[in-house]
Sequence to fold (433 residues):
Amino acid sequence: MRGPRRRLTAVAAAIAVIAALSAACSSAPAGPPTLTWYINPDDGGQTEIAARCTAAANGRYTIATSTLPRQASEQRQQLVRRLAANDSSIDIMSIDPPYVPEFAQAGFLAPMPPAVDAAAREDRVPSSIEASTWQNRLVVVPFWANTQLLWYRKAAVAAMGLDMSRPVTWDQIIQAAAANRTQIAAQGVRGESLTVWVNALVESGGGSIITNVGETDPALIQLGLTAPPGIDAARILREFGDAGVAPPGFPTADEDTNAESFQSGSAAFMVNYPFIWGKAKSGVEEGTLPQSVPDDYGWAVYPRTLPDLPSAPPLGGINLGVGAFSEHPDLAYEATTCISNPENSAYYFVSNGNPSSRLSVFSDPAVLAEFPMAPVIRDSLTQAEPRPQTAYYAEVSGGIQRTFHPPGAVVPGATNQAATDLITAVLRKEALL
Fold:
C-alpha cells in the first residue's frame, strides 16, 4: 500500500505548490482597468480620442473601443439587449439623443457624480443639455451635437430673387423651386430621418409631438399631432409633394442620396447635416468634383414653418452614457470628461465633421478654417429642439414613419389622426407596429 500512498502524497504536494503559485499571482498588481467604449461608426475619430484620453490618464485606466452597428436603431437594440442582461463590459456608450430617456428610465445609466454634472453643463449649447436630461436630471454627458442647415446653390437662388441673408419659410422655398423648375432635396425615406423632418416642422410651428414630456406611463402620453402646428406640418409635406419639387426616388431618399442630388445641381435647395461640406471637399481633393461646386454652396438656418416664428432645427449628435453595471463607473465618468473636452471636441469636428456640443469650439480657428459655416451651425444648434423625449421613443417614431410615409401623400388632418390613433394604440398595447 506504500505505492498508492506515495502517489497521493505527491499529488497533494503538487496541488499545494499550484495553490501557492496562484496565491502569489493573485496578490500581484492587476494593472490599470480597461474601460470599453461602445462607439457609433465614424472615420476613426472616437478611437483616436480614446487613445488621447488613455495617455492623459497617466496609467489610471486605458480605453478600448468597440464599434456598434451603423443605424441608430440597431445601436439602441444591441445596447438595450446587453444592458438588460446586466452586461458589465459596457463602461461608456455613445447614445443617439432620442434614446436617452429610455436608457435612463430602464435604469441602464450609472448615476452621474455632481462634479461631472457641473462640468458637463459648461460651455454647452442649450439643446444638447435638454437632450441629455431626463426627469430633471442630467443623465448623460453631451459629446457632439448635430443639426440640419438649409443649403442652397448660390447661382440658382440669386436668379430667384430670394434674400437668403434673412430667414425663409418652407412655403417660400417650395414656391421658388416650383417656379424655377428645380428641386428641394429632403429625406423622404421611411426611416428615422422622416421623424426628424416631421418633428422639426411641428416644433417650428410652436407645437410638440408629445405635449406632456416626462410622462412615464405610456397609456397617459398625450400627442399634439392633431393640434394646429401638427396640421401645418402635414400641409407643408403635402405641398412639397404636390409642387413637383421632390427629387426622383424621393420616397427612398436619405441624407446621402440628397447630398448627391445637391452636388449634381439638380436640387437648388437641400436640408441636410454638415457632412455634405466635407463630402464635397473630398470630391475636390480626389479630382471627382470641380472646385466650382463647393464654391457655389450657400447655407442658412433651417426653414421656418411660420413667417413670424423662428425655426426649431433638428438636433442630432451623440451623448456619452456610463453603463449602470460597469465595474468602474467613476473612472468611466472621468473618461467622458476627457472625451468631451474642448480640445478633443474641436479635433473631432475638424477630422470627422461632427459639430461640437461646446459653444467655444465654433470660434476655434482650425474649425473655422475647415467649416466656414460654423457660426450658422452654432446658431442652428442654439435654436434646435430635440425629438420627442420619452422612454417610448421607438414606438412614437415608428408610428410616425408608418403613417407619414410617403410624405407627398400625406393628407392634413387625416394623416395626423391616423398617426395619433396608431401611436396611442401601440403605447396602450392594443396594436403592434
